[in-house]
Structure formats: structure tokens, C-alpha cells
Specification:
The chain is mostly helical and 78 residues long. The chain has five helices and no strands. The radius of gyration is 14 Å and the shape is globular.
């Protein structure tokens, strides 16, 4: 089975499941967009530019999902 590329919306969803504090500012610095524009894109109020979609994916590709982190925290508390 061949690998298929993720489209911009899929990259946004991938990033949203793994988003951390400070990611908006980091994306704005790297891509040259303003922080408010990046936040609007993440919230779905603006279309996702390809440059921003690629960087969102690159930032979050090796992270665990937020839901997986919550499960691990529950396990480690006990």
C-alpha cells in the first residue's frame, strides 16, 4: 500500500489533536504570519495556507495526542 499525502485540512486536524502552549507563536515566527491569523486558522475561521499546514504538521508529527497524554497521567498518578 502506498503512502498518500495529507491535505491541508487533515494536517490541521493532526495538529489540533497535538497542540501545546506556545505553538501559535512558534508557527507565527516560522511562517511570517501574525499570531492572530494563525489562531484564526487553527480555530477554522480562515483557510489553511499550505506553508502553515506543512509547519503545523512538522511541529506536531512526533508528539502524542493530547488524549493519550491524559491517559498516561491517570496511570502515573496511581
Amino acid at each position: 500500500m502506498s503512502k498518500s499525502k495529507l491535505n491541508r485540512t487533515a494536517k490541521q486536524a493532526f495538529f489540533s489533536a497535538r497542540q501545546r502552549q506556545g505553538d501559535s507563536a512558534r508557527l507565527a515566527d516560522v511562517t511570517g504570519y501574525s499570531v492572530s491569523h494563525v489562531n484564526n486558522v487553527i480555530a477554522g475561521r480562515r483557510n489553511v495556507p499550505q506553508i502553515l499546514a506543512n509547519e503545523m504538521y512538522n511541529i506536531s508529527r512526533r508528539r502524542l495526542k493530547n488524549s493519550e497524554l491524559e491517559k498516561r497521567e491517570v496511570v502515573f498518578i496511581w
